[in-house]
Write a structure and sequence with these properties.
The protein is of the alpha+beta class. The protein contains five helices and three strands. InterPro entries: ArsR-like_HTH, HTH_ArsR_DNA-bd_dom, WH-like_DNA-bd_sf, WH_DNA-bd_sf.
Length: 105
Amino acid sequence: MVSHRAAPVHTHPDEVSVQTALATLADPVRLYLVRELASSDDWTRSCGSFDVSVGKAALSHHFTALRAAGLVEQRDEGPRRVNRLRRTEFETRFPGLLALVLRDD
């Protein structure tokens, strides 16, 4: 059976305002997702591999927000949707911001 789900829409970080970036990263679930992706190799984490206390629909909403803020890129690999943190592109747009939010202190 062939999956006919739509490919995710990605916003380039150059099109994102600092307010949007900050608002997106202010959410604890999204911050957790970004931190997890930062500590993982690109394209190794599927959406279902994160230990979050939200349902599938809410998780999908969080990934949509991360894509809209230019933080995450996704692609389909068979039945899985895998993720990559757009670290280099985001750093070019907002120098130092990602490093600040990834700190543990």
